[in-house]
Amino acid sequence: MRKSHLRRIGLLLLCAALCAMLAVSASAYPAGLDETLPRVVDNANLLTRDDAQNLEEKLHACAAEYRMDIVILLEQSIDGETPEAYADDYFDYQGYGWREEESDDITTGSGVLMLVAMESRDFWFSAKGRGEEFFPDGVLQNDFTDSVGDYLRMQDYEGACARFLEMVAEYLALPPASSDDYGGSEEPYGPENSVGIVVGNMQRNYAPYILVITFVAALTVAWLVVASMKRKLNTAHARHEAQNYMQPGTFRLTQQQDLFLYSNTTRIRRPDPVDTNSSGGHGFGGGGGHISSSGSHHSGGGGKF
Question: CATH no. for residue 77?
């Protein structure tokens, strides 16, 4: 065989090896976010192009700020699957999730996803990784379900997506439930340390109450001053006993008795006890999370609209 043929075969083998290496490296989940994936997936055509683009930009900005993947998935049909399983599997198998380092493990990655299924009128929230620390079952099932569900029932789908993102940002701005949930980091994953975040949110959330308290305190002080001045002007004193206004011997009580007129009884059914051992299920109660088909741990919550 000629040397030129051997050289060509060698080059082909080298190219094949390089392609294989590139394919292997591309199959690994990158550190941070996979920027090739859309964060607003509107398969039900519920959003205008401008609304979808605006949400996409805000999702990316929020994800970068808090190192948490955020996904909105709008589907016409989920093919008979439960919303919980569909949302979990989509997040896992499509490669979503913020990763601190490159990994081939599908169970890695942190984030939160909102699913809206038009055909079955279901919506579901699924959180994974660090997302579970900020969005446990109780938060997703109660706060998110109540607030976002109101928009969906009014058929305001863009409003529902915007409210979802707004609530995600609000919860991510607070530290998780436990200081040990930061994975050993000296600071939480937000843009500030936990003390700064708590103080900043107190100033923002309680500013209206501070104004009300200040106004009430001013009124109280003014009332005390005026009352003190009024007492100095009073020369007459009210009497609290009737005999001071009666002529002696003009009133005589000859008979007294108690008359029972009627009674009224109201009965209220005692509610059934809540099963605190529930794992969340498909409906619609809080538990301690669940395992998806990929082996990943998720928290979740949702309902019908």
Answer: 3.10.310.50
Cα–Cα dist 28/106, whole Å: 9
Cβ atoms of 170 and 126 within 8 Å: the answer is: no
Confirm if 79 and 96 have CB atoms less than 8 A apart. Answer: no
291, β-bridge pairs: 297
Residue with tokens 């939160």: 112
Domain count of the chain?
1
Instruction: Report the pLDDT value the prediction gives residue 280, as an integer from 0 to 100.
Output: 38
What global pTM score does this model have? Answer: 0.59
The model's pLDDT over 134-143, given as tens digits with 9 standing for 90+, comes to 999 999 999 9
Residue 98 lies in a domain: yes
- Inter-residue contact 74 to 4 (CB < 8 Å): no
Residue 275 has pLDDT above 70, yes or no: no
Structure tokens at 224: 């005390």
C-alpha closest to that of 37 among 104, 113, 103: 113
For 288-305, write each residue's pLDDT tens digit: 799 999 999 999 999 999
Residue span of the structural domain in which 177 resides: 30-199+286-304
- Section 55-77 average pLDDT: 96
32 CB neighbour count, 10 Å cutoff: 15
Alpha-carbon span 118 to 73, nearest angstrom: 11
What's the alpha-carbon Rg for the chain, to the nearest Å? 33
